[in-house]
Amino acid sequence: MTGNAAKARTESSEGRNRMDALLVGIDAGCLSVFDRLSDEDVVPNLESLLETGVSAPLESQIPPWTPSAWPSMFTGVNPGKHGVFGFTGFDGYDFHVVKGDDVRAHRLWTLLDRHDRSSVVVNVPVTHPPDEIDGAIVPGFIGPENPPCHPEGILDDVRDEIGDYRVYPNYARGDDSLTDAEKLEEYCRLVEMRGEAFRYLSGRFEPDFGFLQFQKTDTVFHEFDGEWEKVEEVYAAADEQIGEVLEACNPRQVFVASDHGMGRYEKSEFRVNAFLEDAGYLETTLGGKGMPTWNLMRDDLRSGEQADEWEPSATERLAARLANVGITTHRIGVVLERLGLAEFAKAHAPDGVVRTGNEQVDFPNSTAYVRARTELGVRLNVEGRDPEGVVPEAEYDDVRAALIADLESVTAPDGDPIFETVAPREEYFDGPYADDAVDIVTIPTDFQHFLSAEPADEYFAETTEPWNHKLEGVFAASGEGIDASQSLEDPHLYDVAPTILSALGVAHSDRMDGRVLPIVEATEPTGYPDYAASERDTVDADVEDRLADLGYVE
Fold first, then answer.
1. Backbone phi, then psi, for 3, in 5-degree steps?
2. Where a domain ends, among 464, 498, 514?
3. Higher model confidence: residue 359 or residue 228?
């Protein structure tokens, strides 16, 4: 931040309380991206924060994906303690879309609220429905387009103040009616909305703590395959909003953190379920509901209907029956491609029809399977735990050990191992919800192989998502009370919450897995009552269909 900007920040804060701590969340932010943007003078405000304070790569968790990683950051605990492992939660072989109520651990802002410290939280993923705290919460990604906010009616006030406010773009990924320039304009407008809403709410509530998150810094890589000019445009918009927030709020301390990093996947996609089928662990079927994914529910969710679970429509059930007699949508697609109609059919066929009309995992009759690729792991079908489990509990350890050995032996076409780590889940998860995790964690070597859950004839294919998540994100801190002479000592995602609480002079929870980084004076941990969601009417409908648009689901 330049001297003039710093002066403007001070002048803008006269007559109002200064924010004690601001956390800027940048989805997929990482030093490799920041450094290139800084060299091109695209992000002067971020560059200033990194240069005037202390910064380092931030190790993410396993799995390093948005719906699990952000809750781990703002709770300070691993998914086994907060309960969210991916975009969907699983009930036997069925599934539901995760939401804030699935995160069953104290958040930064709920702990601060217990100490009479106020917060403003804007656009943070998996915060719908919001907690009732001293301050304001406007939920972000995976919530509905018009999310219930706290306090009730505050979103209307935001819109009255700044104009339009939306959680998602006004178009779906793959919509050819807009040019790339128009889509990028929409991205930047969404980024601008975040900053405007945060400044308005901060001025109104004068919080002790603020948390502002930017999501489009991630999705620009997914939607536009890492085209650098588009990345620059989105990051420039985010950096401008960061600068305006710093001027308006003049926080004493500023923290920057990301849920994971971003980079190219240089090697082939690996279809794990195809390997499991050939190895005798997995059965497939035709005529079922399809593979788990929340984008199957998108039409119902968009129209505001109940959205906890998905049941196929009459058309989708017909596709399943046709598949059961060998007329799969894949075979139909081959014929349409020969007739030159494949793209038309792809654009107009309901996604559920494609799924119910194709080969899928037979979960009840399989020994092991991948449910969703972003879980980064394989689940066993265990008697007494799963509805129709086939692995006797007494044989669980032996079956799992054998499968771990089989997965460790898999090599890519170049001869290198597919996985750098194949491990029992206990090495990564502990806590009351660890049983909801995969049984075997599978981490691709250097995060260079995209993992697919779809059944297939071949193990390897060209990577579906050439730009995807990496394990190293970023952490930075600057301002009053930040000791920049101290080493960050390999910070982890779990360290963010206890460090910020300590910076605010608040005791962190003794249940947290993270530690207080040495850049602030540590408070003593203490015990807190179990987290309990605020009493409210939970809204499970009207969640926007964006995971498929962003390439998170297949």
1. -60, -40
2. 464
3. 228
